[in-house]
Amino acid sequence: MTKFFQRRTRIAMDRAKKKKSPFLYKSYSSKPKHKRIRKRKAQERRFKNMGFIAIVISSLFLASLLWNVFMTGKSAFMEAQILLPVKFDSALVESEDYRDIVHNSLMGLFPDVVKRSNKRALFSMVSRNTHNELQSYIEENPQFIGTTQDVWVAASSAVSVFYKRHLYEQAERGGKIVPAEAAWITELARAGRMELKFNAMFFKNGDSREAEQAGILASTIGSFFTILVCIVMAFPLGVATAIYLEEFAKKNWFTDFIEININNLAAVPSIIFGLLGLSIYLNLFGLPRSSALVGGMVLALLILPVIVIATRNSLRAVPPSIRYAAAALGATPTQVVFHHTLIYALPGIMTGVILSIARAFGETAPLLMIGMVAFIADIPKTILGPATTLPVQVYLWSNNPELGFVEKTAAAIMVLLVLMILINLLAIYIRKKYEIKW
Amino acid sequence: MAKFESLIKAALLACTMLSVLVTALIIASVFSETMRFFSEVSVLEFFFGTEWSPQTALRADQAGSSGAFGAIPVFIGTFLVTLIAMAVAAPLGLFAAIYLSVYASSGFRSWAKPVLEILAGVPSVVYGYFAVITVAPLLRAFGESIGLSIASESAMTAGTVMGIMITPYVMSLSEDVISAVPKSLSYGSLAIGATQSETIKRVILPAALPGIVSALLLGVSRGVGETMVVVMAAGLAANLTINPLESVTTATVQIVTLLVGDHEFDSNKTLAAFALGFSLFFMTLLLNVVALVIVKKYRERYD
User: Is there a contact between A352 and A284 (Cβ–Cβ < 8 Å)?
Assistant: First the structure.
């Protein structure tokens, strides 16, 4: 009996090996099972890796962007200064010929220079603004008239870049360094008369044609004024709109229309808002061109839909029980909203508003349309005067191929990004600290 | 008291109406300037002309003093740059979204999400600077090494950088869509033996398709309206070409160049900028509406 079964089994297995029996071994694919599974697993791995690679590519791009900006920009925070033995000749001070004082002092350092072209190169080693600095120096310290004082003065941008980077070949992009100058710089450095110092002018000045004088204060103040106008206009309007739509509006075609309209407005390209500002604010209302007022008003329209959407979301997150409880105690509909719902929604609203301000802060294109792209050397005092903003300043400097401006552009971007991160951190802080979890 | 109530409500309604007014103002202002432009230059020339040189000459007897306003090269350029941008942003954004919503561990998410948020928050002028200073020379050097000559202001440079810029936007939109697909669908697929990637390809993506298409359309709309990257990295000359290695110009670049630093307001040159702006507005509006309709119409109801 046992033998019989053993035989039957063997026959069945033989048939199965020859693929004769449908019962014991059946393959739906020509490939054996383990190969199919291996293929499917490989597919799975490939697919998963693609997603990982996509994220790695994005991160690498961000890292290289930040790295590049940092490496280019960090040198702009230092500038080369020359210790100049300045002879404050009383006659020259009297006649306010500070340029001559500068020239004489430089000639005093390098008395061998006689050729006219060499002299011009020598005089261009210091910043073009040096005579003004010396003037204010002597006005503060009148006792130095008639004496010789060692004064640290800013070197010109080309000299500064050369000294900072030891890049003789690349300095010709600035077009100002000649071999004689390179020798002078080496001599000054050996004598301890040239040093790298913190570039305070970058944070104290407005824009300038001279790279070593150009700073970001004017554009930062301009940004501040613009954002101020933007908040004053967009915040109340946006919150009011959101309150109306979320708390009071009846559900009908008109509300739907407004809603669609606001959602669409959020997706309109920013440059279109610039066109609106140009034709309505400037040409129709006659508001001052390139002013922070108009810039802020344009940006306000830009972030209005964003604020409305953020406010509605955080109003919606407040549970209805709060509203019912307030109404049950006798509060009128507006009291319910302004005394209760709005208060609970406020952290969320503030977070949304701050994030949209960060967006407005980085915006450039619409401001170009309304003339905020002008050359602004003076620090703006009112919101009506001509102003520019930090991102626009970045754009303006980035058009200048001079090496001194290239590093200033990157440095301005660093300041812009740091301010941006601070704004975002503020939003995160408010969300973490005040957010109510229902 | 009731009077006070209705007063507040009326004030709130007035604020709401203002946002409608803004749209109306955009359309009215841009449209009226566009109409003025079309009373000078024929509509047919603008939409079908292939010659774009809007700079009016200084002297009347100079050649081409009236300027040519055929916007086809400008539109083709816009299309080309946006296409390159989407060729970068669509795969990067989609794969990143899939990875983050399906595969990534919570530790990896908490690391990758902020990176992508920073990428989304960097101002576009910074991307433009990066495109000019770093990406353009790199692409040029790469092109030279394989024997291609790439213009320093090529559509490729602007498109690639713009694509990276749009990636986080596409990613966050499609991640929302993917995570909105009910878990029961993918559990069902996994339970009958499909691998995770087969589940994604055959169950999740088809279910999320309308949402993903609309996310891509919104990405296109962002790309079409993006200004600073192309102003800095794409060219000014309106070449009628679809070669991504050559310099092209876009509608936003032309608007900026025509309007910046120009004080007179009645020349055809400035009006042409408004006509371009109107086309741009209309294009993005259309894309947004189509995206909205696709989501509304094809959204599956699962409960």
Answer: no
Chain B residues inside the 8 Å CB shell of A260? 292
* Chain centroid to CA B4: 46
Least confident of B35-39, B116-120, B257-261: B257-261
SS3 label, residue B147: coil
State the pLDDT at residue A10: 75
Is pLDDT above 60 for B62?
Answer: no
Please give the torsion angle defined by the CA atoms of residues A12, A18, A20 and A25, in that order, rounded to the nearest 10 degrees.
Answer: 70
Contacts 24+ apart (CB under 8 A), B235-238: B235/B151, B235/B153, B235/B154, B238/B52, B238/B53, B238/B73, B238/B74, B238/B77
How far does the CA of residue A257 sit from the closest CA of chain B (Å)?
9
The ipTM assigned to this model is: 0.89
- What pairs with residue A83 in β-bridges? A152
pLDDT of residue A176: 57
Element (H, E) at B68: strand B68-69
Task: State which residues of chain A have pLDDT below 50.
Answer: 21-26, 168-174
The pLDDT mean for chain B works out to 86
Q: Mean pLDDT across the stretch B11-28? A: 85
Q: Is B225 on the interface with A (CB under 8 A)?
A: yes
For chain B, counts of helices (H) and of strands (E): 13, 2
Model pLDDT, residue B171: 94
CATH number belonging to the domain at A217-434, selected among 1.10.3720.10, 2.60.200.20, 1.20.272.10, 1.20.1250.20:
1.10.3720.10
Q: Are the C-beta atoms of residues B268 and B40 closer than 8 Å to each other?
A: yes
B68-298 has which fold?
MetI-like fold (1.10.3720)
**B119: nearest CB among A62, A268, A394:** A62
Does pTM top 0.95 for this prediction? no
Contact A410 B129 (CB under 8 A): yes
For chain A, what are the domain ranges? 2-73, 77-199, 217-434
Q: What is the pLDDT of residue A174?
A: 46
Q: Is B238 on the interface with A (CB under 8 A)?
A: no
Domain ranges, ordered by start, for chain B: 2-40, 68-298
Determine contact, residues A387/A372, Cβ cutoff 8 Å: yes
Residue B249 has pLDDT above 60, yes or no: yes
Give the C-alpha separation, A214 to A408, whole Å.
8
- The closest CB to that of A275, out of B91, B133, B274, belongs to B274
Q: Which residues pair with A87 in a beta bridge?
A: A148
Q: Taking CB atoms and an 8 Å cutoff, what residues of chain B touch A284?
A: 29
Which residues are CB-contacts of A427 (< 8 A; sequence separation ≥ 6)?
A: A350, A351, A354, A355, A358
